[in-house]
Every structure is written in structure tokens, then in C-alpha cells.
Specification:
The protein has helices spanning about 40-60, 65-75, 85-95, 105-120, 140-160, 185-195, 200-210, 215, 250-260, 290-295, 305-315, 320-330, 350, 355-365, and strands at about 5-10, 15-20, 30, 125, 130-135, 225, 230-235, 245. By secondary structure, the protein is mostly helical.
Length: about 375
């Protein structure tokens, strides 16, 4: 019986089989087969060994794996702000793409992973018996972000010359007027009544300032000046990595004064998780209790980030200019606030009246 030129070694708790061999040009190969089935692992190992032999001896172009493209992409994008989200998406994709060569990732494969992600539940919640359940599907925006990541990696591999072409991945542009959710004032009141007591202060502060979830939860007293009625988001905490100073309206001041009255001496957090000196802030506010309160309040599901959209929407409907809103919200571009413009067409009234005298003069001549 002929000996294989490679070895299969089980590794890890699951016993995943890894392939190990030396190529004709002296390079050592050690890769995971992604399976515990020895027959499948052997078939995959033979395929890899044959391909590398043809590259070394016959001068054929090496076929690159998806995993190789991912590693190369990460080397150039390690400083990306959303890298943790990318890692989550790649972990999800691994069972479907890790064993494929780049030239095997075609439109059919992409359609398959897109449909599977779309069909997967979005938020898993835990019952008292320990089991999990969900009643909300994954959003199209989540699927689109994953597909955009795949497109970026495949385009990067194409620029490296690892693949001749990359399959076309078209992502539908979101409609600026409909790609966010916001609360009416009645909905906000109902939700506030149903929230657990510890969630009410950060909920109200979010609606008063438009700050993002982590900026609210991790607010420290050294970032607040109650005398000047201002608070700051530190540069390392801001999405744009630039410090933001925010004026505090009466609602925000009332919340901070209430939190100061409850403050335990020595605790630096504005919204701590307990009444002890060393109490840390909550990791997340959008937890199981948050979604349960929404169901009790009988409102459509919304994420904590939608409170920022609510704050912006209420501002525009109250007459705040889009330029002022951009500065208050710490957005870097005017484009970011245009999604709220449809809520207040009155902001164009002054510009519309610029032709009033011309129109009257023309009307007089015609009459």
C-alpha cells in the first residue's frame, strides 16, 4: 500500500484534522482541513498536495485559498475602526469559505452565504430554562456589510494577482429617508415607563444629547462641567476619533444632577452598575430587558442607536438647522444629516422666498 506524502494530525478538542507535508521546493505546509472526517480530509490533502506539486514542478500559477486572502487583507487593514465587526463576520463565513480557492468563490456561492445570513435570527435571547429564542430576522443592512467585506477581500486578492477576476457584488444603496428608526414622543413615554430603573437615566440622557450607547454608559464625572453646562466625549471614545464638546440642555442637566445626588464618593462613572465605590458601568444597555420593555410598550423593535436618530429627528422637527445638528451630533460631513431633512421642509422656506419679489413683478406685468 503506497504511503501518502503527507500526514493528518488531529488537533483541538474537536479533533479537527490538519495536513502537514513538505513541498518539492522545500516549503513546509501545515493547514487545517476543517473536518474530523478522515476520508474527506485525505481527499482534500491529496488535492492540495497535487496543486502545490504542479506549481513547483510544472510552473503553474498557484491557486490561493480564501483564508490566505483574508490573512493578507488583515495585514493592510488592522487599523480599521470596524475591525472587530469584520472579525465577527469572517468567523461566521469561515465554515462556508475557508476550504475554497478564490476561483471557486462565484456568484452561486455568494448568493448562498447571503441567503443563509439573511435567514439567521438577529438577536438570540435566553429563556429561564437556559434555551435561546428570537423573533427578529437579520437585517438587510447586516447582510450588506458582510457582502461588502467579501468584496473588499476579493478585490484586494485580485490586485495582488492571486485571482484573475472577482465576482460582481452589488449592494443596494439604502434610501436615506427610510434607513433608520425613530420614536414618537408618545412611544418614548411608553417605553420609559416599561424600562428597568437602571436603564431610565441613560435612556433619557441619550434622548437629551444624541450620544451613542457607549459614550453614555462610559461617561465619567471628569468629562462633565455642570457649572458651564457642558460635557465632552474624549477623542479615543468618539467614532471620528476627535474630541466632541456638547452643551447640556435642561433635560440632560436634570439627569446629571439626579445622578450626582446618588453618587458614591470615589466612583468616577456617571451611570455605574451598582451603589459601591468600585462599581463599573454596564457593558450594554441594549440587553434582554431593553427588548422586553419594547414588547411590553407595544412598539416596533428598535436598537439603542435609534435613540440618536430620535434625538436628531426631534431636533429637525423643532426647527434646528441641519448645519447646527451636524455640529451638535459630532458628524464629520453634511451628508450624514441630510437623511433628516425630509422631516422639516420649512428649513428651505427662506431660500424659496428669494424669488418672491421677482415673481410678484412678473405677475403684475402679466396681469
Amino acid at each position: 500500500m503506497a504511503r501518502h506524502p503527507y500526514k493528518l494530525e488531529p488537533r483541538g478538542k474537536k479533533g479537527i484534522l490538519w495536513i502537514r507535508f513538505t513541498t518539492p521546493d522545500g516549503r513546509e505546509v501545515f493547514r487545517s482541513s476543517g473536518t474530523t472526517d478522515r476520508v474527506l480530509a485525505t481527499e482534500w490533502a491529496s488535492k492540495i498536495h497535487t496543486e502545490l506539486y504542479r506549481v513547483a514542478r510544472l510552473g503553474e500559477k498557484q491557486r490561493r485559498l480564501w483564508t490566505e486572502a483574508v490573512v493578507a487583507w488583515f495585514e493592510d487593514h488592522s487599523g480599521k475602526r470596524s475591525i472587530k465587526k469584520d472579525q465577527h463576520n469572517l468567523k461566521w463565513l469561515s465554515p462556508y469559505l475557508s476550504h475554497l480557492h478564490l476561483d471557486e468563490i462565484n456568484a452561486d456561492v455568494l448568493a448562498m452565504v447571503s441567503s443563509k445570513r439573511k435567514a439567521e435570527p438577529k438577536n438570540k435571547r435566553r429563556k429561564k430554562d437556559g434555551s435561546t429564542f428570537t423573533d427578529e430576522p437579520t437585517s438587510q443592512a447586516t447582510v450588506d456589510r458582510m457582502m461588502a467585506l467579501i468584496r473588499s477581500i476579493l478585490k484586494d486578492a485580485q490586485r495582488r494577482g492571486w485571482t484573475d477576476s472577482a465576482p460582481s457584488i452589488r449592494i443596494k444603496e439604502a434610501d436615506g429617508a427610510d434607513d433608520y428608526r425613530w420614536l414618537t414622543q408618545n412611544e418614548a413615554v411608553r417605553l420609559h415607563k416599561e424600562l428597568a430603573p437602571h436603564l431610565r437615566p441613560p435612556f433619557l440622557f441619550s434622548l437629551a444629547t444624541g450620544w451613542r450607547e457607549q459614550n453614555v454608559l462610559r461617561l465619567m464625572w471628569d468629562q462633565v462641567d455642570l457649572d458651564r453646562r457642558v460635557a465632552w466625549i474624549k477623542g479615543r471614545q468618539a467614532k471620528a476619533k476627535k474630541a466632541i464638546g456638547a452643551p447640556l440642555n435642561r433635560n440632560a442637566m436634570d439627569i446629571l444632577l439626579e445622578q450626582r445626588a446618588k453618587r458614591v464618593a470615589g466612583n468616577p462613572w456617571v451611570f455605574p452598575s451598582g451603589s459601591e465605590k468600585d462599581s463599573e458601568p454596564y457593558v450594554r444597555a441594549s440587553n434582554t430587558g431593553w427588548y422586553a420593555a419594547q414588547r411590553r410598550a407595544r412598539i416596533e423593535p428598535l436598537a439603542w442607536h435609534d435613540l440618536r436618530h430620535t434625538w436628531a429627528s426631534w431636533h429637525v422637527m423643532a426647527g434646528t438647522s441641519l448645519r447646527s445638528l451636524m455640529e451638535l451630533g459630532g458628524w464629520r460631513s453634511y451628508q450624514s444629516v441630510l437623511r433628516y431633512a425630509h422631516l422639516s421642509p420649512e428649513h428651505l422656506a427662506t431660500d424659496a422666498e428669494r424669488l418672491e419679489k421677482v415673481a410678484r413683478k412678473l405677475h403684475g406685468q402679466v396681469g
